[in-house]
Amino acid sequence: MTSPSIIGLTGSIGMGKSTVAAMFEEAGVPVFDADAEVRKLQGPGGELIPAIEEAFPGSTGPEGVNREALGAQVFGDKEKLKKLEAIVHPAVGLKRAQFLEDHKDAALILFDIPLLFEGSGHALVDTIVVVSAPAPVQRERVLARPGMTVEKFEHILGLQMPDAEKRSRADHVIDTGTTLEETRAQVEALVTKLKAAL
């Protein structure tokens, strides 16, 4: 019995990564969304609430982690950020291991990892897929988000590896600068190709 082949999906802000992840799911590929797991772990009644509250008093409440309160304690403090990551990362790792166990009979599984190259996520996957759209399309999508400003957008871009570099390091690129139908066709073709290669 071979273990599943793991696809790592990544892409910069506004490139349509969540949309593409959903398309992989529709094509029958189980998807592990690290960000969604973190939100659950830190949400109302989340498993990590007691540990986070103990490490960062006043940072949680009935709604789970108060992102602003926690951010105020952690922002700009490398030691505190490390402390928070030491609580969050192992918990996400356990969820990922459980997900792998639950889907060990699948041919393909997908890890949705926003900062795949910026972190060590690329070591966990067999194939890297980058979602990408032309810069003007990306800009238009992001600036249409509620509460987004040009400054915020520029700041986020500055923290992320440039799109061109991500594309150059990818095994496959999904172009999301087209229609949803065309993007879906690219995803389905890639799933077929990856399954055939197993």
Largest sheet properties: 5 strands, parallel
Shape: globular
Given the helix and strand composition, which structural class is it? alpha/beta
CATH topology descriptor of the largest domain? Rossmann fold
What is the CATH superfamily of the largest domain?
A: P-loop containing nucleotide triphosphate hydrolases
Q: Which characteristics define this entry?
A:
198 residues, Rossmann fold, 52% helix, alpha/beta, 5-stranded parallel sheet, single chain, globular, two-stranded antiparallel sheet
Please outline what is shown here.
With 198 residues, this protein is α/β, with parallel strands linked by helices.
Question: How would you characterize this protein structure?
Answer:
By secondary structure, the chain is an alpha/beta fold. The protein has two domains: 1-30 and 108-198, Rossmann fold, CATH 3.40.50; 34-102. It is built from nine helices and seven strands. Strands 2-5-1-6-7 form a five-stranded parallel beta sheet, sandwiched between helices. Helix 2 (34-42) packs across helix 5 (78-102). The radius of gyration is 18 Å and the shape is globular. The model has no long low-confidence stretch (mean pLDDT 91).
Spell out the blueprint of helices and strands.
Layout: E1 5-10, H1 17-26, E2 31-33, H2 34-42, H3 49-55, E3 60-61, E4 64-65, H4 67-74, H5 78-102, E5 108-112, E6 127-132, H6 135-143, H7 150-159, H8 163-169, E7 172-175, H9 180-197
Parallel strand pairs: 1-5, 1-6, 2-5, 6-7
Antiparallel strand pairs: 3-4
Helix pairs in contact: 2-5
